Amino acid sequence: MAKKLPKVPVVVVGMGWAGSIIAAELTKAGIKVVGLERGKERKMSDYLMVHDELRFQHRTELMQDLSKETITSRINGKMRALPMRHYGTFIVGDGLGGAGSHWNGQTYRFLPYDFEIKSLTEKKYGANKIKPDYLLQDWGITYEEMEPYYDTFEKMAGISGETVELYGHRSNPYPTGPMIKTPVLEEFEKATKKLGYKPYMIPSANLSENYENPDGISRAACQYCAYCENFGCEYGAKADPVVTVIPVAKETGNLDLRTYSNVTRILNDGTKATGVVYVNTFTGEEFEQPAEIVVVASYVFNNARLLLNSGLGKPYDPTTGTGVIGKNYCYQVSSGYSSLYYNDREFNLYGGAGALGIEIAEFTGDNFDHTNENFIHGSGIRTTQYGNRPIANNNAPIGTPSWGADFKKQSIKYANSILQVKSQGASMPHKQNYLDLDPTYKDVYGMPLLRMTYDYTEQDRELVKYMAKVTRKIAEEMGPDHIDTVGEQSPFNVNVDTNTHNTGGVIMGAEPETSAVNTYLQMWDAENVFVAGASAFPHNSCFNPTGTLGAFSYRAAEGIVKYLQQGGSLV
């Protein structure tokens, strides 16, 4: 029997970027908030002098324990889904800060095209450009309406970058200038400029300079130590909820932060939520936390799973096309890249940062003509310098054995002499790519796991073929001795594919028939439930999702304040 606690105005499930931003904004407005985080509390000092590749990258200390909770995966509805037993594609954060602690820090805005993708595509290319199986839809809001929220997020996080003319209007420049341009990035810059493109430095949450944000949080500049992805930042140079918004929320005295608190159900009467049930992961004790508003902000997979396990919203059915919870799950398309091998040149590949990179915008969104192409949208074409790691990085040309003397020889030869021209492509929703509850497997608390049905589509395969030609051309201009280009998209493999960006499942839109939440991330079917995070994206752009996630979190916080004042639907 769960122990019932006193009712609170707002309970937030998950204290990553989305939940922490919302908690900070509400507590600053004088609203009492209970923040529930299933993992442990963290602070910047926990990462001091902890450059342990084995512990954090390979043994995934900051990630969810897959022996207790995971997802199941299959590539089509005829297969039986099996549990993901070790981290490959997805690295699901666990603990205060969530994925906002272990992310790389690349912080883009989505394009104006993204927010009105269906209307703009049909206007330019005709209704037949979008095939019936692709569930493309406008988001119910425009880029211009979202621009102020992007600006707020970037100022809070201190994003370092430079204005790009092929992207949307900006009301302000980035708060800090771009990161340093290393010799690796200069190679890409020279080649792309020769080809007529306009390269720009990737917008970065790794600070290029010391910075104090509007909340008075001061952080130091990046040291380019290369321990970003899968690691917390010991300097606080990488924007992280733990060093930016959570301290602000705590300072108000209005945040009741409870770690080791795993929410298993949202209590509801079918039309409104009454609170949540959570388990203390140490003692196993169960608690009921009543609340006026429930904010679900616990990552793409768990947002959908929690709603499905709680009977909130109508589950998506791929056969009939009805329902919305689990609909429009999207990933990203990362094949089409080229690897460059140099025999007589070396670079400092072991220094870097998670968002240190350079990119061209000409192949993103609808910035090029798709009239004669069998796909829409595009890819960011880039070179990055994250900083190689001795255990993880043993690169060798395609065809080299994966072990033995030749492998050792080739990996040593190219240890400091391999660059990449990468492609990160957009992912369009397809009616057969979705999330639901697994009928067989359960977590440690007896709750059904989330089942992911996903494979790459014809759209993805055509996009990869096109972008492979682009990356190959740039690679040739960079003058290596050998180039390997991955020009075909293989079937999806949860244990092999390496992009970590998930979106959809609880998507936003202008009407309840085709979406789960409105543009304030308020559920159509339960007006006092707000579902924040990339689960709200109706498709995935070619950019990293965090900047857009952060912008919508600020908008959701604004909506919650309005709801507490007036109630009802906000749109």
Summarize this structure as a short list of keywords or feature phrases.
six-stranded antiparallel beta sheet; alpha/beta; 12 helices; FAD/NAD(P)-binding domain; 571 residues; eight-stranded mixed beta sheet
3D structure, described in words:
Helix content is 23%, strand content 19%. It has a single domain, classed as FAD/NAD(P)-binding domain. The strands form 5 sheets. Strands 1, 2, 3, 9, 10, 11, 12 and 22 form an 8-stranded mixed β-sheet that branches. Helix 1 links the parallel strand 2 (8-13) and strand 3. The chain has 12 helices and 22 strands.
List strands and helices in order, with pairings.
Blueprint: E1 3-4, E2 8-13, H1 17-28, E3 33-36, H2 53-58, E4 71-74, E5 82-83, H3 99-102, H4 112-115, H5 117-125, H6 143-157, H7 183-194, E6 200-201, E7 211-212, E8 218-219, H8 245-252, E9 255-258, E10 261-268, E11 273-280, E12 286-296, H9 299-310, E13 327-330, E14 338-341, E15 357-360, E16 379-384, H10 405-413, E17 418-425, E18 434-442, E19 448-453, H11 458-477, E20 482-485, E21 503-505, E22 529-531, H12 546-566
Parallel strand pairs: 1-12, 2-3, 2-12, 3-9, 4-19, 12-22
Antiparallel strand pairs: 4-5, 6-15, 7-8, 10-11, 11-12, 13-21, 14-17, 14-20, 15-16, 16-17, 18-19
Helix pairs in contact: 1-8, 1-12, 6-12
